[in-house]
């Protein structure tokens, strides 16, 4: 893990168990679930592909060639990790054309394991068209005592911090460093993809800092006056009465949110706004980038609850399955379970 992640607070305490994740791509399986049902007709050809050891953009480009279209005519709902086995959907714009012949596509591409499903749809697939992803992760060389069972049960019941994972920040946090330099006018960023990476890293970094500080001050489960609660539909409620807010949290439909900082003032008020503002103000150069690019303020839940979480321990191997909503990272779950002992990094997310 990078220093960007290592400095963040743990909700369940720093884990004492160690292990290796993603020793093989087969040890990290991800399958996405769309947030719509294909219409069965339309000018967009949808194809669900299982890939091994290849990134999303490479497969998309190869799919474009096989379908005789340009790369910009192929889209996806979420980027998927290269060092994994992933099942994901692609959308190919083929107006007035029949379904393409992909009978040789698997044989011609070593990293493409199977064509799982095809369909037609009347709209282009766009980033974020996901309910979420299901993960099956295998930890090898697992070294931990019997306390791991209680820890896993606690995580299943109480959740984990909804941190953005290290891949959001680039290798060694370089996207954050570049965003700071950009904010000091050390260089100009004309490339749209780089602008997107740096802006995303800046906002994600600030969210992580606010969340980590709340955990450190034991405020992750406690509401403050002026907090904003958020529900699954991304509706928000301002906390003006602590007791009524606690009732909403207990009911389970609402969660405490943190800032995805924008160019406007923080929408929280009173104690919560003062708390958040003090933290984001420590990064003036990141704020400069966010404000100069007119980013819209958004909110994100502080906690993440892995759904349908189950695990099996067999000797020095621990296998864990769970599902996450779109935009949430498996890293956030795994960093609360083990201290990763690989030489490299592990990270995968239920992508936007």
From TrEMBL:
Q: Matching HAMAP family, A to Z?
A: TruD
Which residues does the UniProt record annotate as the domain TRUD? Answer: 159-305
**Similarity comment:** Belongs to the pseudouridine synthase TruD family.
MF GO annotations? tRNA pseudouridine(13) synthase activity
Q: What is this protein called?
A: tRNA pseudouridine synthase D
- What InterPro entries does this protein's entry cite? PsdUridine_synth_cat_dom_sf, PsdUridine_synth_TruD, PsdUridine_synth_TruD_CS, PsdUridine_synth_TruD_insert, TruD_catalytic, TruD_insert_sf, TruD_pseudoU_synthase
Q: Name one Pfam family in it.
A: TruD
At the top level, the lineage of the source is Bacteria
Phylogenetic placement of the source organism: Bacteria, Pseudomonadati, Pseudomonadota, Gammaproteobacteria, Vibrionales
Q: Does the keyword tRNA processing apply?
A: yes
Q: Give the active-site positions.
A: 81 (nucleophile)
Source species of the chain? Enterovibrio qingdaonensis
Catalyses: uridine(13) in tRNA = pseudouridine(13) in tRNA
Recorded hits in PANTHER family, A to Z, give: TRNA PSEUDOURIDINE SYNTHASE D
Q: Which UniProt keywords apply?
A: Isomerase, tRNA processing
**What EC number(s) has UniProt assigned to this enzyme?**
5.4.99.27
Job of this protein: Responsible for synthesis of pseudouridine from uracil-13 in transfer RNAs.
């Amino acid at each position: 893990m990078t220093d960007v992640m290592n400095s963040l607070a743990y909700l369940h305490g720093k884990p004492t168990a160690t292990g290796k994740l993603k020793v093989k791509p087969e040890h990290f399986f991800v399958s996405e679930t769309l947030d719509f049902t294909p219409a069965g007709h339309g000018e967009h050809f949808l194809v669900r592909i299982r890939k091994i050891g290849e990134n999303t953009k490479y497969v998309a480009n190869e799919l474009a060639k096989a379908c005789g279209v340009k790369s910009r005519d192929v889209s996806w709902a979420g980027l998927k990790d290269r060092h994994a086995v992933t099942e994901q959907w692609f959308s190919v714009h083929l107006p007035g054309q029949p379904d393409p012949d992909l009978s040789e596509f698997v044989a011609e591409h070593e990293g493409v394991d199977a064509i799982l499903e095809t369909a037609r749809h009347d709209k282009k697939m766009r980033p974020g068209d996901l309910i979420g992803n299901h993960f099956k992760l295998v930890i090898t060389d697992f070294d931990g005592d019997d306390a791991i069972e209680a820890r896993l049960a606690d995580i299943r019941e109480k959740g984990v911090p909804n941190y953005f994972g290290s891949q959001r920040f680039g290798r060694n946090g370089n996207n954050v460093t570049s965003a700071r330099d950009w904010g000091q006018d050390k260089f100009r960023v004309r490339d749209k993809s780089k602008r997107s990476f740096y802006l995303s890293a800046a906002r994600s970094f600030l969210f992580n800092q606010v969340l980590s500080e709340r955990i450190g001050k034991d405020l992750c489960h406690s509401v403050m006056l002026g907090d904003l609660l958020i529900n699954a539909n991304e509706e928000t409620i301002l906390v003006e009465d602590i007791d009524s807010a606690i009732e909403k949290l207990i009911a389970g439909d609402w969660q405490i949110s943190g800032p995805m900082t924008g160019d406007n003032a923080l929408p929280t008020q009173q104690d919560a706004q003062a708390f958040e503002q003090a933290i984001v103000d420590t990064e003036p150069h990141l704020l400069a980038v966010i404000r100069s690019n007119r980013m819209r303020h958004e909110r994100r839940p502080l906690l993440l609850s892995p759904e349908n979480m189950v695990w099996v321990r067999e000797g020095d191997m621990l296998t864990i399955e769970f599902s996450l909503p779109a935009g949430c990272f498996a890293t956030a779950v795994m960093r609360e379970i083990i201290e990763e002992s690989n030489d490299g990094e592990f990270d995968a997310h239920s992508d936007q």
